[in-house]
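Standup notes, structure subgroup. Blocker cleared on the adenosine-5'-diphosphate input:
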Amino acid sequence: MSLRLYLVRRLALMVFVLIGIVVVTFFIVRVVPSDPAQLYLGARSRAGQVEEVRRQLGLDRSLVVQFGGYVGDLLTGDWGESLRTRHSVLEDILHFLPASLELIISAMIVAIIVGVSLGALSAYRKGGLIDHGSRIVAIAGVSLPAFFLALLLQVIFFRVLGWFPVATQIDPVVAQTHPVTHVTGMLVVDAFITGNFVAFADALWHLVLPTLALAAYPAGLIMRMTRSAMLEALETDYIKMARAMGVRQRFIVLKYALKNSLAPVLTVIGLMFAYSLVGTFFVELIFAWPGLGTYATMSILSLDYPAIMGVTIVVAFMYVFANLIVDLLIAWLDPRVVLS
Amino acid sequence: MESPLLDIRDLRLEFRSYRGVVKALDGVSLAVDKAEILGLVGESGCGKTITGMSVLGLLPRQQARVTSGEVLFRGDDLLRKSEHEMQRIRGRLISMVFQDPLASLNPVFTVGDQITKVIREHKRVSKKAARDAMCRALSETGLPTHKTLLHSYPHQLSGGMRQRVCMAMAISCDSPLLIADEPTTALDVTIQMQILKLLLRLREELGVAQILVTHNVGVAAQTCDRIAVMYAGQVVEQGPTVAVMKEARHPYTMALYECLPQGKSAQELLTIPGSVPDLIDPPAGCRFHPRCRRVLDVCRDVRPPLVEVARGHRVACHWVAEQSGPVRIPPES
Ligand SMILES: Nc1ncnc2c1ncn2[C@@H]1O[C@H](COP(=O)(O)OP(=O)(O)O)[C@@H](O)[C@H]1O
Ligand SMILES: [Mg+2]
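Run returned:
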C-alpha cells in the first residue's frame, strides 16, 4: 500500500475514533447527576432563571438534538462556553495548552534521552555498574507515583537545597523586567526565539523540577524496554554475523542492535506520551503550572462539562495523533513493515 | 614442508551450563592449507559449528572455556589474542558465513551499507574505494552491482542471493580463509549446487581456503579436497576426500555413508542406531563405542589415538588399528 493511501486510511480511522470519543464523553457528562444550568447560575438563583438558562443552553431539547447541535458546533470551532470561566472553551484550551505541551515535550525528551541511552548502555554492559544502577533508578521511577515524586523533588531541591523554584513558569519579577513576546505560547521556546535570554534561563530553571516529576515514569519504562529489546537483538544471527565480520562491538550494539530494537521502544514511547498527557494533571497542580492539566482539574471539580469535553477531545486527538506518528516512524525504520 | 594456513591442535572446549560442564570439544586437531577446502562432517550436535566459532573467538566468554589446545593461524595462536586483536582478524583474515542467510543479514540496513561497513571497518579507505571493493566482491560472488541490489534490504532478495551477499561480505576484505557453516542447508537443491560451485570458484580464482561445515557427506565429497569426520566433539577420521570416501575405515564414517540416500530408494533412509551421547557425561574410551558395531573391550576404556593408515589418512579406532596392524608409511619424497 502506498504511503498516501495509508495516511488517508489512518486519518479516516482517526476521525471515527474521535467521533466515538465525542459520543462517549457527551453521554457520560449527561449521566452525571448535576444540573449544568444550576452550576452556571451559582447557588443563589431564582427558579425562573434556571429554566431560562436551560433554554439558552439547549438543555431542554432531546439528547439527540443536543448531540447533533454539539457536533455541528464542534466542527465550526464553537466548543461551547465554559460554565466556570465564561470564556469560549476552545479559546481557553488554546490558552492553556502550550504550557502543558512545553512540560510534556520537555519531559518526553528527557525520558527518551535518559531511557534509551541508559537502556542501551545497560544492554551493552549487561550485569555491569550502569546496568545495576539504572535498574534501581528505573524501578524507583516506575513505582513512585508522579505526585509523590513531585512532592519529594520539592522537598529536596527547594526546601533543603534551594536549587530550583517550585511554582509557576517564570519568576514574576523576571516576567515584569523581561516580558516574553507571545509566539507559540511555550514560554521557554518563545523566550529563546525572541532572544530574551534572561527570561529563557529563568523559564528553563522553572521547568526542571516539573519535567523530572513527569519524566520519571516514562524514563523508567523506556529504559527497561530498550534494555530488553536490545538484549534480544544482541542474540540474533545478524549480530553474530556482524561480529564474525569484525565489526566493532560498540557499533554493533549502538547501531545494528539499537535500530532493530526501536520498534517496541517507539511503541512504549507512544504509550508514555499518552500517560504524560494525564500525568501532567497532577504535576501541574503541584507546581502551580498554568497548563491544560490545571484547567482540566478545575473543570472536573466544578463539573464544567463543556470544558471537560473539550479537554477530553484534545487529549484524545493528541493521543491518536501520537500513535499515528509512532506507526509511521516504525514503518520508516523497519523496511519489512507493510503499511496496512 | 610449508606449515598449514590454519592449524588447530588438540582443542578442548567446555561449556558451563545449568546441568553441568559440557565437554563439547575433546582434543580436536585439524589443519587447512592455503587454498584448500576442508570438509567438516558429522551428525548435528557433534561440534562442527563451535569448532568454527572458537577459531574466530565468537563463543560467549562467560560460558565457553578453552581448556587446552592451540589455534594457529599462520603460526600465530589465536587463542592468545585479545578481543580487540580478534576483531581486527575477523572478516579480514578469517571470515565465517552461517546456515541461515536471511537471519544472518541485518533486516533494517541495506545490503550495500552492510558490506561497506565491513570494508571500512578493516580498511581506512574512502567511501568510493569501499564501494569499488564491494562491487568487486559482489561480482566475484556472481551478483549484479547495480543500485537496485545495493539499496535493497535482505528480505527483498532470494535465498541464494542472500547467501551470495553473505559470501561477498566474507571476501570483501580478501580474507584468505572462509569458514562456511552449512552454507547450503537452508537453500533449495538447485541453489545449493550454485553455492557449492561458488565456493569452488572462490578457491580457484581468489585462492580462498575454506572449512566447509556440513552434515551432508555428499556435499563434502563434491567440494572438498580433504574431509574430517567428527563425532561427539572428536575427530574420528580425516584424510583426502577420495580416501575418506572410497576407503572409509572408521565404523562411524561407514555408518554415515550407509545413511546416504541411495538412488531411488531414498524413502528408506537408514539411520545410525542409538543417539549422540550427552556431552556432560560422555562415554569413556571411544565416544562412539555405545553405538559401534565393531566395539572391542578396549574401546570402553581407552581413547583411540588418530593413527595414520595411509598417507594423510588418519583414523581414531581400536578396531581399525587391530585390523591393519602396524602400518609403515613410506617416507615423503
Ligand atoms: N552455549 C552452549 N552451552 C552449552 N552447550 C553448548 C552451547 N553451544 C553448543 N553447545 C553444545 O555443543 C555441542 C556442539 O554444538 P554444535 O557445534 O552447534 O554442533 P553442530 O554444529 O555439529 O551441529 C552440542 O552438543 C551443544 O549441546
Ligand atoms: Mg551447526
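Discussed briefly. Chain B has two domains: 6-93+175-324, 112-173.
Next: hand off to the docking folks.
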